[in-house]
Amino acid sequence: GDSVTQMEGPVTLSEEAFLTINCTYTATGYPSLFWYVQYPGEGLQLLLKATKADDKGSNKGFEATYRKETTSFHLEKGSVQVSDSAVYFCALSGGTGRRALTFGSGTRLQVQP
Amino acid sequence: EAGVTQFPSHSVIEKGQTVTLRCDPISGHDNLYWYRRVMGKEIKFLLHFVKESKQDESGMPNNRFLAERTGGTYSTLKVQPAELEDSGVYFCASSQPWETTIYFGEGSWLTVV
Q1: Regarding beta strands A11-14 and A107-112, do their DSSP bridges make them parallel or antiparallel, or are they unpaired?
Q2: Residues A102 and A24 sit within 8 Å (Cβ to Cβ)
Q3: Cβ proximity of A90 and A76 under 8 Å
Q4: Alpha carbon of B14: minimum distance to chain A alpha carbons (Å)
Q5: Best residue in B102, B108, B109 to probe A by mutation, most A CBs within 10 Å?
Q6: Given A42, A98, A106, which is nearest B106 (Cβ)?
Q7: Distance between CA atoms of A90 and A4, rounded to whole angstroms?
């Protein structure tokens, strides 16, 4: 079945540092890939997505590129802020024709001032 | 436009009691999903409705969980009787049939004591 693996957290960075959260996936077919974010005390929000190979999703300074050859969708941001502190989830859908999302375990990011 | 709404936001019940969680999807969204995150682990799929029909219920953990979606609008998820390991966050999500993006509610936080 489909699966998503993302780096263990927590990740602790200073403000303005560069962020990378690794995500790799296993799926048959051509899945769509997503990053969701959960801020403290809030629900899940879609951060960005990519629906085909080589697509780059971007939002709020975050980027991720769909790499089919390495089955990866790493999340990056050039300069993090304290307000980016949250749990980030990598996810996929449609790999086996299934609409439902398959999530990674989540990576907690803590940004210190 | 209203997002996905869930009720209650928090619930504390004793082992053996019954809890019913409600989800109102975004208006016009035929797809409705239930997920849960237990003890800081990954977010796991429970089931998927298309209108009032259960499209995929492969993630339902056991027969103590019953999901319904009468009339294809709102959905309920009943846990009866609740066990300690049912504690966690239950997320509802919805989407349009032609969209890859799935929109989440803020979650119902369940604590079984």
Answers
A1: parallel
A2: no
A3: no
A4: 23
A5: B102
A6: A42
A7: 7
Strands (E) across chain B are located at: 5-7, 10-13, 19-24, 31-37, 43-50, 53-56, 65-68, 75-79, 88-95, 103-104, 108-112
C-alpha–C-alpha distance, residues A31 and A2, integer Å: 9
Using the Cβ of B98 and the Cβ atoms of chain A, whether some distance falls under 8 Å is answered with: no
CB burial of residue A44 (10 Å; 0-12, 13-18, 19+): buried
Hey, what amino acid is at A79?
S
Instruction: Determine how β-strand A102-103 pairs with β-strand B108-112.
Output: unpaired
Pairing of strands A56-59, A62-65: antiparallel
Q: What is the pLDDT of residues A70-85, one digit of tens each?
A: 999 999 999 999 999 9
Contacts of A16 (CB under 8 A, 6+ apart): A79, A80, A81
In tens, the pLDDT along B23-63 reads 999 999 999 999 999 877 889 999 999 999 999 999 999 99
| Residue located via tokens 């082992």 | B15
